[in-house]
């Protein structure tokens, strides 16, 4: 009798346990819908606000306070973001410390990936360590070189120039696709400027030539013309080295270009202006729905036709509809969202103590948005294959969980159990699908550059843009004291 009496109690306990299980799944589903990329989005909005207010120290404080939020999988990204904001704040030495840590982590991750040969194929890429795209890795060394040059530590800047050269050569050897990112015109151009500023005219010419060839070869997708200043630099260094053939070739290629000899510039001082214009693009989710049967997809499409709610709300409704009739696999792919700058030309004024003024316009030397688009397009095939495999696996697991729950609950409860478990497991699979949207968002949209030679002396530096640029605060003005043959590097951020 005791054994028979205990059966109803056991059945109640079993079904109560199952109900608790369902509640837990529901809580997990709700949590997945409410979380996502919100914190990082808010962080970058705050950084942008600080930069617009000409408060780079405030922007850096935001990144520093969020170090733990980046997490262990995004140590490289934190180093890149922090390195940029520290540079803008004038903390060049500390910027190089965190950039070097990021570079070391990139090398460590690459070595580990080569050793293991395979990554977790079915793992969402956002759960994997972020290595940065190749162009971002090159820019780590570019920023370090600029920091050293700004501090006047030219030998250290040359070390970074050689590191840039090495990294690009390795990248070129590693990359087999003809039209892939395998060299960087801006990085090459910068190394040329560093070499020439330290008197190494031969290596400067080699770097200028590589920059010119790379910019010409990548113009179709980089949308970056060869700067007129680079043409001048090629002619000047070819003449200085007595490269008669090369000089004649470039004269024929640039018939309208005029230049001054290196000898004529020896007693003058040089100012190199690096202008970071606008905001780098960011990534967002784009969803691909693959029907296993058309019923669920038709429900979702009907919902989208009737609903005017935002994307996140639609995603929640989709989750329920997929769960009710969920024979649709959903995958998330990253989509690049450009944020093009309105500043086309940045005008720089150098005002001497005697009131004379020298004016120079910057030219675009690096299209960061185009580089980001190129990097994503090159990886998209692999991202898509992984996303499809992941989505199919989630669907199979949800189907298995549904059948398992039906069997565990018993014949009488099977219909409602199947409905609830299908709703939650398949809905959770949809809600948890998210692309890896990490990227170096503290970068600008474009990098502009200008070189100008002026008589030795003291100068105030002012700049203004051709677009809707807020007037600079008086404290943003900077003073340069330049001796004959000296070079000063000025870095500025323009946020229209």
Task: Provide a brief overview of the structure.
With 496 residues, the chain is an alpha+beta fold. The chain has helices at residues 2-34, 38-52, 56-65, 67-70, 75-88, 92-116, 134-150, 154-174, 185-197, 201-222, 228-240, 244-253, 262-265, 294-306, 311-324, 368-409, 414-431, and strands at residues 269-277, 282-291, 328-337, 346-352, 357-361, 363-367, 446-454, 457-465, 478-482, 487-494.
Count of individual helical segments? 17
Low-pLDDT ranges: 20-38, 114-120, 294-310, 319-325, 468-475
Largest sheet: 4 strands, mixed
Mean pLDDT: 81
**SSE string:** HHHHHHHHHHHHHEEHHEEEEHHEEEE
Total beta strands:
10
Helix residue percentage:
55-70%
Radius of gyration equals 29 Å
Strand order, largest beta sheet: 6-7-1-10
Shape: elongated
| Proportion of residues in extended strands | 15-25%
Secondary structural class: alpha+beta
Report on this model:
- The protein is an alpha+beta fold and 496 residues long.
- The protein has a domain at 267-496.
- Helix content is 58%, strand content 16%.
- It has 17 helices and ten strands.
- It has helices spanning 2-34, 38-52, 56-65, 67-70, 75-88, 92-116, 134-150, 154-174, 185-197, 201-222, 228-240, 244-253, 262-265, 294-306, 311-324, 368-409, 414-431, and strands spanning 269-277, 282-291, 328-337, 346-352, 357-361, 363-367, 446-454, 457-465, 478-482, 487-494.
- The strands form three sheets. Strands 6-7-1-10 form a four-stranded mixed β-sheet.
- A hairpin with a 4-residue loop joins strand 4 and strand 5.
- Helix 2 (38-52) runs antiparallel to helix 3 and helix 16 packs antiparallel against helix 17.
- The longest helix is centred in the C-terminal third of the chain and has 42 residues, at 368-409.
- The radius of gyration is 29 Å and the shape is elongated.
